[in-house]
Structure formats: C-alpha cells, structure tokens
Amino acid sequence: MNAPVPREELLERARSIAPLIEAEAETVERETRITRPIHDALVETELYWIALPRELGGAEADIVTCIEVCEEIARADGSTGWSYFVNLVTTAGVVPFATEEALKIMFANGERPIAAGQLVPPPNARSQRVEGGYVCSGHHSFASGSAFANWISSAQYEHDGGKPLLNEDGSPRMTITLMRPEQVQFAGNWDVMGMVGTSSYDYVVRDLFVPDALMIEGILLRLDSGEMAKRGHTLLRLGSLLNGVAGHTGCILGIARRAMEEVAALNNKKTRLGYPGPVAEDPVFLNQFAHFDAEFHAVRARVLEVFGGIEAKVRDGGTVSDEDFARARQMGTWAHEKCGAITGFAFRWAGTTPVRNPNVLGRCMRDTLVANAHLLFDSKTMTDAGAPILKSWIR
Predict the structure, then answer these.
(1) SS3 for 152?
(2) Taking the domain 234-390, which CATH number applies?
(3) Is the pLDDT of residue 1 over 80?
(4) Mean per-residue pLDDT for 88-92?
C-alpha cells in the first residue's frame, strides 16, 4: 500500500499555484466563481483529492496538512480558498459513506469526484422511498464550490407519503442524495458583498428519482458519523462536521495571513499626513502589529494542536468525544473572531487604500465579514462548547 504523500510536498503544490490564483482573483470576483485556469491547476496538482485514501487516488493527508493547504489557497484568494475547502471536505465527507456501486460510478473512466452542495436539509427538502430508490425534492442554499463540481449533494427529510419518518431516538430520519450538476437547477442568485467568487448559489431539486446506489444515510453530520464510515483513513473517520470546521478555519487563517502581509508591505512605503516617515515606523502601528502578529500565531498554533490531537486520538483507536468536538468548535469560533480582529486592524491601518476597488486588502475585509457570518461560528457555539470544556477543568 502506498504511503501518504508527505505534508511538505502537498504544501509546495499549494504554494506553486498561488501566483496563478492571485493573478486570477479579480476575474474570480467578477465572474462569481473560480476560473478555468484555477480549476485546471487544482486538478493538475491533485489538490482536490488530498483527503482521499491512496487507493482512491488521494494523498491520504492528515487534518493538520489539510488545514495548512486550505490556508495557503485562501491566502492567495479568499473566495478560491473557500470554494476549495468546500470541495475538499464535501468530497471527503461523502466518499466514506457511499456505496461500492456509487464509487464505481464516481470514479468511472478515470474521472474523480469533486463534490459540492448542502448536507444540512432545509425544511422543504424531502425524500420518498419508491421502488429502486427515492424521489427527492428541495430548495437548497449555499452550493459553494459548485462552479466545477461534477457531483452535487443534498440532504432531505425522509417521508412516507405526507408523514416524516423518525429515528428510534425521535430525531427526523434524513437521506443524502448524490446527483450530477445537470440534474439540479441553479438559481444564479449569488450577488453578495464578500466571498463573491464562491458560486454559492441556491439550487432546486424537483421530484428527481435517485437510485439506491446514489443515496447515503443521513448520518454525516452526527458527531459519531466517522465511526460508521465504510472506508478510509483516520481523517475520514473524524466525521464530516469536524472536518468542515477544520476547512473553514484553514480558510480564515489564510485570509488573515494575507491581510497582515498586505498591510506590512503597504505601510513599509506609505506615508500619511502627520507622520514623519513611513507608517511602518510609527510606534503605535508597530506596537499593534506586534500584538496582532502574536495573536495570529497563537491562534494558528492552538488550532493545529487541537485538530491534530483529536486525529491522533482516533488514529490510536479512540473516538471523538463531546469534549473533542467542543474544542474543535471552540477553536473554529475563536479563530474566526481573532482573524476578524486581525484583518480589521490591517484594514484600518491601510487608510483609504483598501476602500477603492479592486484591492486585495479590501477583499480580505469583505471576505472575513462574510466568513464570520457562518452559522458554524455563531457566538452561541462558544456557549455550547462551554459545558464540556468546563468539565475538563474539574479534578
């Protein structure tokens, strides 16, 4: 069996395409999706599939490496980083649970899956069991990364006629559908202030028959879903939700890193009225820059420590505990809060420069605001994480 591709090799692949992504960033924003050259580069470097097992053509990367690769791509452009991590974690989310027949279809004729779509069902999404499969419907939101995806997923509440079905614990029974992009209707309604190039359109599924082979039990967002995986290395057994938090967090780290790079380079030359020299020589700026540099590296190190620690535990035979998941959510939310403050610092100290489009730092600020609006990083996540974390302090 082939060994995992080394971390540094994967990071070098990401760094190698960063100049192309930077050059294409304004076109990404204008077209509201990643460009064909960026997609082709991600295919050529095989970065889409680094989280998949080696036997499926992946790199079998660990979660820390995936976070760092997401960071590198997002540093080059936030929208591209967001689209990329969604494709990465969605593909890695469905493959461990897909049927063997589905894998044969998804990997047929040398093709490899690039998945996008929602794994959280809206209230109107439903599936109905029929002979040989299900009839599925629903209006879904936020199909990030759908520009070049060759598979679209969607989650539904399973029904029997007009009656929703329940699991033994009383929770609604869910299904997940794998479809080709041409089987869904994209609304084309992504006109937003930030993360503009993520093609996060609404999409509609209308009474679509999906064969059993392309249906997945709706367990992907359960905390113990990784324990039910049919296949895969440790990363795939952490569960789709935890891996999703990791991908989001890598993206926001990359945007904050780019913001710090931009303000450092700008203020090394920029002069302003009332400053005796370049802004970078001002003691107030230097004091704040040193503080935010420390905060960036502190949050980044803790993120990698927590996610890497959870993966190591599972690799050694453990399972993801309530505290583990609480720590992951805590780190994701904390990283978004701190990276928001870091990017805000950079934006303020750049004066009017990032106010005028196009501007990288202005784009970082808008992307950060939108990233912080995501449901996964609502302030309530800290409250929810508090109880399990509190228990860890009681001896």
Answers:
(1) strand
(2) 1.20.140.10
(3) no
(4) 97
- Average of per-residue pLDDT values in the chain: 96
Cis peptide bond N-terminal to 358, omega within 30 = yes
How far apart (Å, rounded) are the C-alpha atoms in residues 50 and 47?
5
Q: What is the DSSP string of 95-143?
A: GGGS-HHHHHHHTGGG----EEE-SS--TT-EEEEETTEEEEEEEEEEE
Domain ranges of the chain: 7-110, 115-218, 234-390
Name the band, by pLDDT with cuts 50, 70 and 90, for residue 226.
confident
Q: What is the pTM of this model?
A: 0.97
Query: Residue holding tokens 């039910």?
Result: 228
What tokens does 89 get? 């974690």
- DSSP 8-state code for residue 217: E
The total of other beta-carbon atoms located within 10 Å of residue 66's CB is 25
Q: Tell me the pLDDT band of 224, cut-offs 50, 70 and 90.
A: confident
Class of the domain covering 7-110: mainly alpha
Which alpha helices (H) appear in the chain, and where do they start and end? 7-31, 36-44, 63-76, 78-94, 100-106, 240-267, 283-315, 322-349, 360-371, 380-392
Q: How far apart are CA 374 and CA 370, in angstroms?
A: 7
Find, among 274, 275, 278, the residue nearest to 266 by Cα.
278
Which two tokens mark 174? 């869910």
Domain 115-218 superfamily per CATH: Butyryl-CoA Dehydrogenase, subunit A, domain 2 (2.40.110.10)
Please give the full DSSP string across 331-382, using - where no structure is assigned.
Answer: HHHHHHHHHHHHHHHHHHHTTTGGGSSS-HHHHHHHHHHHHTTSGGG-THHH
Closest-CA residue to 253 (of 116, 6, 64): 64
Q: Whole-angstrom Cα distance, residue 72 to residue 87?
A: 15
DSSP code of residue 218: S
